[in-house]
Amino acid sequence: MAEDLIDIRMTIEGFTSELVKRGVPKEKLIVGLSAEAMGMHLMVGERRETEIGAPSSPFDHVKRRNMPGVVSQSDVCLSLEKNSTISTFHPKIGVPYLIDGFEFIAYDDVHSIQLKTIWTSMNGYGGIALFGVEMDNVDGECPKREPYPLLKTIVGAQICEVCAKQKIRDDQNSSSPLASSVNSCTESSFQVLCGYRLAKEDGTEPLEANMIPYQKCTEIVVEEAIWNADGELRYEESAQDSLRDLVQFHTQHQNNSKLVSAIRCNMTEQEFINFIGDNERFVEKILSHMNLFGYSGIEFRCKDVITAATNSAFSSMLENLQSNFKTAKSSNECKKTVGIRIPAHMNNLKSSYNISALNKLHSIVIDSFPSPSNISELLNPLFGVGLGGEFVTLDSTIKNWIIEGVDPRKIVFSIPAYGIWQQLKNTSNHDLGEPVEDAIDLMTQELLYKKFKQLGIADRRFVYEAVGAYATTIDDEFLSYETPETVGYKVKYAIRENLGGVAIDSLNQEDFNNVGQTGPFPLLEAIDLNKCFV
Fold first, then answer.
1. What is the reported pTM?
2. Which end of the chain is more exposed for a tag (fewer CB within 10 A), N or C?
3. Is-contact 376 476, C-beta < 8 A?
4. What is the pLDDT of residues 214-261, one digit of tens each?
5. Which Gene3D superfamilies match (predicted)?
6. Whole-angstrom Cα distance, residue 504 to residue 217?
7. Smallest Cα–Cα separation from 303: which of 261, 232, 352?
């Protein structure tokens, strides 16, 4: 926020940094923002060429009901409604300004307040103070019926140093070596689902079972068993050795993380209906699969076959499966769980899912996997502020689902360990929203760190208002990714919203070899650090 200014100490970033250098603890600093705007009279001939730093007079003010030079949020709104007003948001310093006639108005808006609030939270400062709250469109004058826009933005964007609380299930400890491979039925109210892709013979993603940080995960979600039209659940032949090693290691080293099988449906809608309609055979196949590999739960990934036409049959299947899990459960083993993964763009859940059936599941995971785009875009944005246009974000999806009746405690959102790569078409502009080639590639954290060490990185920056990060290169490449800072904020957001937890996709794409020299599994470490327990 301090770029393009002569003295960076005159910015929030520069001033707070100076205080911290002088020994003031971050948690003792309260960042002050204001709903009061500032008006000045421009002393220039052509106002359309006016930028920050142009000559102005603080003495010749536009007359308003407030004190001379004092501009309220309602006044700003009324000026913006004029066709003649020129308004600009300066992205490098994170503030807007407008020119109305010969009046220059510097102010904060929802965008800049969101940016500053998230920056404050992400950097561990003590909090936010909003001065001049009486200027925050108190009466809902302009915009109409929208009082306190800045205060509401702070409330929605600020996170605090809160911890997830641990809870204990009533189930007894497990004594079966394969049933769940855990030594206790203790369960956290905040789940950390760690995706694990079985290593292939070609050596890609070579994360061995003995390298997995089990103690930082409540579940290891094994990707993926393929559920074919014949009703059989199969893994690729090249993954068999890796699967055997995982099950053996997990069984021999008793720990509290559970093994969960991710099941992907590979069939048509009609084949799906036919198979789940045979309840006895379906349950037998699922239980056999779980018992064979010692799984404690399953996670359905069947977005292509769960539709309005299959909704009823799928809901009945879920109810029947969970009922059979209870019946088959012995007195000395933990309860088996059922979860589901649903794409983030599925805003109208009721069109394909029974909400009551979803709320009976162990977890409902929001899958934020990116799709090909013709513009450079942020990976996994939490908010849409500052992105322009209508983007699907985690926050918008979560709020839509809760409005539809989904229990927030069941919602788990995914955090990609991978980054996305896009090739920019414009060699002169490397910002968000610029044209790119159609292709989109995924990059592991390890490859991203190697890329950052190259001299070709032109720019790296946080998009605080959306909670994301990206980098560009001199070869016109656009990279977007998660960082420990963005992950930490999202974990605190999940706790604040009383959500069920987060899922990391996947451990194989983390920097498990510590190439970035910040410690292995930096994103998972950020999750573990920020969830804590009380």
1. 0.91
2. C
3. no
4. 999 999 999 989 999 888 999 988 888 899 999 999 988 767 789 999
5. 3.10.50.10, Glycosidases (3.20.20.80)
6. 10
7. 352
